[in-house]
Amino acid sequence: MNENNYNNSKIHILSEDVINKIAAGEVIERPASVVKELIENSIDAQSTNIYIELINSGKELIRISDNGIGMTLEDAKLSIQRYATSKITEFNDLFKLRTMGFRGEGLPSIASVSKLKLVTRTANQKNGYELVIEGGKLKSCREIGTSIGTIVEVRDLFFNTPARKKFLKSDFTERANLVHVIEELAISYYNIGFNVICESKNILSAPITKKIDERIIDIFGNEFYEGLIYFEDDFQFFKIKGFISKIEYSRPNKNSQYFFVNNRPISNRILSQVLYDTYRDSLPVNRHPTAIILIEIDPSNIDVNVHPTKRMVKFDREKEIRDLIFNTLRKNLVTQKLPVFHMSEPEFNNITPSSSLFSKQTYEQINLTPNVTDIRSTTSDKNIINDELLILGQLYDTYVLVQTSSGLVIVDQHAANERVLYEKFINLKQNGDIKQEMLIPETIEVKPSEDIILKDMIDIINQLGFNIEQFGQNTYVIKSYPAIIGKINHIKEFIKEFINIIVEGFSITQSGQLEPEEKIIRAACKAAVKAKDKLHKQELEQLLNELKLCTQPMCCPHGRPTMIHITIDELEKKFRR
Fold first, then answer.
1. Backbone region of residue 559 per phi and psi (left: phi > 0; alpha: psi in -120 to 50; beta: other values)
2. Bridge partners, residue 191, by sequence
3. HEC states along 39-73?
4. Dihedral over alpha carbons 415, 417, 419, 422 (to 10 degrees)
5. Bridge partner residues of 292 (DSSP)
6. Residue 532: predicted pLDDT
């Protein structure tokens, strides 16, 4: 490479006209924002390996080291000034953009709210330079021996903005945010090696690879990868490839949906809607698909200058893109010959009609819409739980039909069992911690961002009757579970569901309104008994008897009713008696 190329400054101050058009008031609101900006700078600097070190969830230290092209002293000084960038010169350059950054706001914004050290060196320099900036002001600059590339060290984030520091979430939530950001960038840039050290422990190691499949396995594990369907398509003005989940690998939350445009992680309502439209008649209620969708498109057909975080992208020819993506996803989902969920004819267990009136030849389905009342809503109905109950059967393997002296009660077996288990967990310490030992311990793999949450929660989880231990990086072994949950036929599926619900409860959008123990208890209850579980008569009787003993039998821990009541009077009105 020509030596003169290194001596010529690449970074320049944008003109006032361009500044006014693209200024977005870049805000560094949490440690994850810092990590995102610095990794994007390393990617734009043509790095092949990026090393990330975090202390105290990034609040005490964030250090990003790369082996990119580095900067000259002049460029390094310009890089900490607002709107100094090497990516664009004029406004129209935005529509040719191939880099992650472009505004020249990220590094100055970070420097203004932290104690920042920048060490950098280019290939044609014998030594590099170290710049120390505090609260946006350059404190010192000196020549220093260092390897080619750039190291950015951010200490005491928000030391001079205590109001912003006060609004940070708990340590494990901030760590989960950090790792989620790194996961996203590591997926799309699988040709770059990533290493993440958090609190002196290696939590993510993703070596350089030529195939995205290998990167997915490195980050998420084999189990995650085995649940995916690969797809790709090449259209006139864009290309698409990626993975969507098989039906049986759906999840209880949206935490495993990743969208990228030209390798940039994005949030896009259109892409999200297309994904759910693809699964519209295939997913059970409250289940969510996994997706890793990468779109490659000419920059002139998109606008990335919509939001300061650069996560919002607008498409030209939006409807056309939407339809093409839907057709691609649907085609690949259908070719898997996966089951489609639909409502079948009602089945009543333990009901044997003696009259030919109910035979298939003469039975005509009638859409009954009784004026159903929430059993919690009236004082008189509250005594229904103590009435003599006669179990008629199970409808759709979801609802228990019960005859009472005043009419018909329909019990949601999932909500009812949640309430029973919830109150058992609450009384667990009084009744003794009895565990159900597993004959063969099960192992389960989790994502790095999930691992962050579980590490913080593992002690509380085990205090509630589980025995779950870490078994290597991002892997856990399950040795026992609380006996109060009862017999579980598919323990591994239960544990996976349980962990997914816990992670959802402590996700990056969690409100923090509930205590950790309360969230874990609710997760265990929710994962225990599902709709569509076929229960024997004895099990139904036990469920209802245990529900009777609950202090709040009328609703589940989440506030949904456990049962609804249709009175004899309401039935007679419907039949005009």
1. left
2. none
3. HHHHHHCCCCEEEEEEEHHHCCEEEEEECCCCCCH
4. -130
5. 243, 258
6. 59
Residue 256 token pair: 């495993």
The mean pLDDT values, 10 residues at a time, for the chain of 577 residues are: 56 60 58 93 94 94 96 89 60 52 72 93 94 92 95 93 83 86 95 94 92 94 92 93 91 89 89 92 82 91 69 84 93 65 39 33 32 39 61 85 88 87 75 74 86 83 84 87 73 78 64 64 70 74 86 82 88 83
142 vs 230: CA distance, rounded Å: 51
Max CA separation in the chain (angstroms): 98
Is the CB of residue 118 less than 8 Å from the CB of residue 131? Answer: yes
Residue 528 DSSP SS3 = helix
Q: Which of 479, 491, 456 is nearest to 176 (CA)?
A: 456
* Among the listed residues 428, 430, 395, the one whose alpha carbon sits nearest the alpha carbon of residue 534: 395
DSSP assignment letter at 23: -
H or E element: which one contains 183?
helix 171-188
Task: Determine the 3-state secondary structure of 320 from DSSP.
Answer: helix
Q: Report residue 91: phi and psi, to 5°.
A: -60, -40
**Tokens representing 444?**
């389960």
pTM comes to 0.71
List the structure tokens of 161: 């903005």
The domains found in the chain, sorted by start residue, are: 3-212 (3.30.565.10), 227-334 (3.30.230.10), 343-577 (3.30.1540.20)
Contact predicate 196/182, CB 8 Å: yes
Q: Which residues lie closer than 8 Å to 355 by C-beta, 6 or more apart?
A: none
Query: How far, in Å, CA of 118 to CA of 106, rounded?
Result: 14
Q: What are phi and psi of 281, to 5 degrees?
A: -105, 20
Amino acid at 289: P
Annotate 367-424 with DSSP letters as a single string. ------EETTS-TGGGGGGGS--EEEEEETTTEEEEEETTEEEEEEHHHHHHHHHHHH
Structure tokens at 292: 């890793």
Instruction: Residue 120: name the closest of 26, 54, 197, 47 by CA.
Output: 47
Give the model's pLDDT for residue 306.
Answer: 64
Report how far residue 493's alpha carbon sits from residue 506's, in angstroms, rounded to the nearest whole number.
Answer: 20
DSSP state of 462: H
Compute the distance between CA of residue 128 and CA of residue 385 in angstroms, rounded to an integer: 77
Bridge pairing between strands 257-261 and 291-297: parallel
Alpha-carbon distance 134 to 335, whole Å? Answer: 58
- Which among 288, 289, 317, 315 is positioned nearest to 304, based on CA atoms? 315
- Alpha-carbon span 312 to 237, nearest angstrom: 20
Helix (H) or strand (E) holding 130: strand 128-134
Which residues does residue 241 pair with via DSSP β-bridges, in sequence order? 232, 294
The number of helix segments (H) and strand segments (E) in the chain equals 18, 25
Q: Which two tokens stand for residue 434?
A: 């009895």
Residue 534 pLDDT: 75
